Amino acid sequence: MILAKVLEPVVCSTKDSNFDGKKIFVVQPLDKDLKPNGATFLAFDSNQAGPGDFVIVCREGNGCRQMWGQDQAPVNAVIAGIVDQLN
Amino acid sequence: MHLGKIMGTCVATVKDPSLLGVKLLLLQPLDEKLKNSGAVIVAADPVGARTGDIVTWVASREASLALLNKFAPVDAAVVGLVDHVGDVDVQIRPSREGEVET
């Protein structure tokens, strides 16, 4: 899993049927100093995150599908939690 | 998942049997500002995207899960047609209403 910052939502009307009711966000990967680190990508939200939040993102397909609850969803990035603090 | 723009179609008559009936598109990956990000790729399209559409696409093993055949040999598939990225409206469909669907 990686640290990331939520940038903005992406809205899709026409999409894979597994995605109905799920939110998609553009997320920016971060390093340990919370500086941008690498290219942005899209992640699904299962934890009520919002733009500006620091989050942890799971980028492994199997883990994402388990979190998703559907074993056939074409998902490989899910926001797994919202970061409170880093020590 | 990533953002992308459909640049055109790709036709392959001879292909793996599991790809029969699967539409193939040329896809330009985009960053969050909708600027080009990397080289154009070929992606499978179960959604029905058209040239010029901004789409979301998924890479790696999960791409074939978007198709009917969950074991098709694809590593990129379109999974959604984008309406908005943040406050930016990228939906171009209304301007194409006169277009005849085939």
Based on CA atoms alone, the radius of gyration of chain A comes out at: 13 Å
- Sequence of strands across the biggest β-sheet of chain B: 3-2-1-4-5-6
**How many runs of DSSP E, i.e. beta strands of chain A?**
5
Please name the two chains that share the biggest interface, counting residues whose Cβ lies under 8 Å from a Cβ on the partner chain: A-B, 29 and 30 residues
Strand content of chain A: 35-45%
Q: Pairing-aware structural class of the strands and helices of chain A?
A: mainly beta
Biggest sheet features of chain B: 6 strands, antiparallel
- In which order are the strands of the major sheet of chain A placed? 1-2-3-5-4
Low-confidence stretches of chain A: none
Coarse shape of chain A: globular
The pLDDT mean of chain A sits at 89
Oligomer: heterodimer
- Poorly predicted regions of chain B are none
Q: What are the secondary-structure elements of chain B, in order, as H or E?
A: EEEEEE
Q: Which bin fits the share of residues in helices of chain B? A: under 10%
Q: Helical percent range of chain A?
A: under 10%
Secondary structure tally, helices of chain A = 1
pLDDT averaged residue by residue of chain B: 86
